[in-house]
Design a protein that fits this description.
With 463 residues, the chain is mostly helical. The protein contains 21 helices and no strands. Helix content is 80%, strand content 0%.
Length: 463
Amino acid sequence: YFINLQYIQDFINGSWVARYGKPMEERSVKLIWSAIVSVYSIGGLFGSLSVGYFTIKYGRKKCMFYNNIIALAAAVIMGCSRKANSFEMILVGRVLYGFSAGLGANVHAIYLGESAPRKIRGIVTMSAATFHSMGKWSGQFFGLSEVLGHEDLWHFLLAFASIPAVIQLISLPFFPEAPRYLLIDKGNQEMCNKALQKLWGRKDFKAEIEEMLEEQAAIKGEKPKSVWELLRDRSLRWQLITMVVTLTAIQFSGVSIISSYAFEVFREAGIPDLKICYVTLGVGATEVFTSITCGFLIDNIGRRALLWRAFSCMASTMALLTVTLYLKDTISWLPYFNIFLIFIFIMFYGLGPASVILPLCLEIFIQSSRPAAFVFTGILKWTEFAVIGMAFPFLLAELKNFSFLIFCGFCLCGALFVFFMVPETKGKTMLEISEEFNRINICRLFCRKDTQNHGETILATRL
């Protein structure tokens, strides 16, 4: 993504010439480049689909270990593509790396959430989002022409993903399995206690173990749910609605579009094309900084407050950006103000949705539902990502700058929904959070019954 696309397209054409002695048609080159970009999402979708199966079969720790082998293989295949003169190897590597990203991001979040003490569960779980932001920023940095982003070294940039995979492969054997998985899923209290001592230090964990035993008793030996069972379970309906609305608001908030549209905004502000990459690097650094800042706030302010406030500020920023982009030719300093608004938007995104969504998803589902919930949210995330990627060019062609008002509407809806409908999860056990959602489900059920009874009474009176 951070490599000059011309290098890859020249490589595709050059490898074709080396095989067949004639250049490839320009349309075919662009088609292959589009495939290289899109197969990552396809791999990510399949990786997300496999979360439930692999986490249940192998556990959290082993699943992460095996997943890093896939990531390492993908990086090696892509890194060797230039030497082998094969653009097909980039395609294969992108599919594998997408699969690894879709699987690894979810398993990592589950492992962190099931290993963290309740008081700091938010900051520990959301650290996955922080490192995700750091990964994007490091891609932008190493993609600079002064580092690896030039014609002679682009294949090394493709192989750069092997470094985190190697680090985790070396370090993971020294970490224990997730304590909650050991006790609730495997029923091994002794191994759970050893894991807690290794992670948190040598002290008495009686209260934590009792909490896990209560959750184990509440599950009553129920096997982990499949996605279909999760969708059919009426007691989890409100949790699912919460994830659908929140994830949809995030995916359609416009953050992915801001990233692609920023180039034009920066160019209109008079920044030379060769310098825009440095401004983009600043945008990435802003997301990293705000994500780290969120870590210090999430266990104090709470998930709900951070989410609805951030969504509200994002909606306001997007509405203001729509106006300033429309008026950019009338006032000389407005293009510079647009740059400021992009930084503000990314800042609120990092402070809220980008960081809070993982802890929220982990906390509102109990142990038997969690793997299936991450599969469901993964499918939703990658599907919506594909939809917005395909739909935005048409929206931009028809509505121009006013297309940003659509994203403003999604942010506003997300803020209202979280403010009025989502309970706070900060500092609560998984069972306490589950009981709060159950009360919402019961209230909705009684309201529905009262409405039906009232309607029947009116009908009987009329008859």
